[in-house]
Design brief:
- By secondary structure, the chain is mainly alpha-helical.
- It has two domains: 48 residues, no CATH class; 102 residues, no CATH class.
- The chain contains nine helices and no strands.
- The longest helix is centred in the middle third of the chain and has 19 residues.
């Protein structure tokens, strides 16, 4: 009851919703646990953030940046462009195919988006594509790669 009243009071006073939710939620936790909550909160927050995907994402993005600087992404784009670049909308097709190749290397959509967001979006803009369209194609290409079950196919061929 105290939490709801505090939340409504903060909203009436003009506090942002995020502040009202946060203050009301923390007051409810203190009401339930008292000082015991204050001693447990840091470890609970750390355990909530100590998850492998949270740790892996920055390293995947770092790998994309390394591949950008060493030229691997450029070579993948050139290969994809040689395969499908002659079609109408060729650079968009090349973007998709290069994303599939790149995600076969990294397996992460975040690394794919980081790598091709910096290289292919400006290239598509230079060729006359709209920025929104180039970003949409890059985003769609970066999430399509991890859905392709390549490791499952490899396990069948090894057996």
């Amino acid at each position: 009851m105290i939490v709801a009243m505090l939340f409504i009071l903060l909203l009436v006073l003009g506090a942002p919703i995020t502040v009202a939710l946060g203050v009301a939620g923390v007051s409810g936790l203190f009401d339930i646990g008292g000082a015991h909550f204050a001693s447990l909160a840091p470890s609970k927050i750390f355990n909530g953030l100590n998850v492998f995907p949270f740790l892996a994402m920055p390293f995947f993005i770092l790998s994309a940046e390394i591949m950008n600087h060493t030229g691997i992404t450029r070579q993948l784009v050139l290969l994809a462009d040689a395969m499908v670049g002659h079609k109408r909308g060729g650079l968009a097709h090349s973007n998709m195919l290069a994303s599939v190749f790149f995600s076969g290397i990294t397996g992460a959509a975040t690394a794919d988006a980081a790598a091709f967001g910096r290289t292919l979006v400006p290239a598509m803009e230079r060729q006359g594509y709209g920025r929104a369209y180039a970003c949409a194609v890059t985003a769609a290409g970066s999430i399509i790669g991890p859905t392709i079950p390549l490791p499952a196919l490899w396990s069948f061929t090894e057996a």
